[in-house]
Amino acid sequence: MARRWTNRYRAVEMDGIAASYDVVVVGAGPAGIMAAVESARTARSVLLVEASSLPREKSCGGMLNLYSRRALEPYGTVPEEMILDPKWIDFRYYHIDREVKKPTQVRFLNVDRGLFDEWLLSFLPANVHVACGVRLADLWQSPVKARVLLKGLRADGSRAEASVDCSYLIAADGPRATVRERLGLRPFDRYITVQEYVSIERGAIEPYFDCIYSKEFDRDYGIGYIMPKGDVAIIGSIFYPGSRDVERKHEDVLDRLRDIYPFGESVKRETWIAAHLRRPADLVAGKGRVLLAGEGGGFLSCTSGEGISFALNSGIMAGKAVAAAFEDDSLVASSALECYERALKPMKKNLAFRMGMFPIMNNYACKNLACLVPTPLVSKMTERL
User: Fold this and answer.
1) What is the DSSP code string of 140-190?
2) Which residues lie closer than 8 Å to 251 by C-beta, 6 or more apart?
3) Nearest-angstrom CA–CA distance, 145 and 384
4) For 337-379, how does the pLDDT look when each residue is reduced to its tens digit (9 = 90+)?
């Protein structure tokens, strides 16, 4: 199917990376792309580096909630060609031990994640240089600049590295959080996530994003979910940090769910990691001339695992903060981080609330009690989580 979008950014190889840029952005997911888009409004040159190829292969459900859709409104309408069947999916709790289902009015737009990232890349203007297959190996900063050491491959396949100076660094490097660790900031634990793609007949599964509860699953097991995506469904398992033998445990989950849902053959399996955020101190805006956006800053819902809306919004805020610093030369070097901290306050408050609710939501007795709560009240509460 023909795409209605084109890329305007300049792709560069390792040998084409300049010695200095106004802004360097690490990570070309939603947070990094939006940070590059916004900072490039006043910065003359922006370098966006991504360790993998583009568009990325990202283990993700590809669900856009209301806050994601609102964040994207200034940039255009989500193209129809990236929307999957069913177009709209509502969130639902499913306690399979008690055979209780609690549908909510929390609605998601169902998209192809690869095409979604490709569309976001089309937002990048021509003054953004994009280097794929390049990772950040180290960084340093002084009161007047930051310096990053980048490593990657030349076009001929030989290894190369580049030292790049910048006025600001925006790190959107996801749960690996390399920049966060290099800065010596508070680390976080990581979940292990497993996603299974199984074939389905269209319409065979109800249009719900099911969050699964069952005491049968091992205590290491965090959250299970199911969502239809065209000719396949995604079955996800999230395991707590330190869990062992997750592939076998995931197989146990699959066997149990195949008794309930009309799943076909397995098509693909993905294993990845996700930030396990437990306290407000896990939420960090950055340090000095380095700003953290998306999951690397801790901006991810601990209650639902939803991260796209937080990635988009934190990336936009970080980019705007840096753009404002370039727009006003009289501002001191710390102004970008201070501006970003102010913008993040509502998001941090929201995430802190979720952290407080997480132990209650994840308690099996409370899950049983929730079966007795009227569905409209469950739906209302879910809107905040």
Assistant:
1) EE-SS-EEEEEEEE-TTS-EEEEEEEEEEEEE--GGG-HHHHHTTPPP-EE
2) none
3) 39
4) 999 999 999 999 999 999 998 888 777 787 788 888 888 888 8
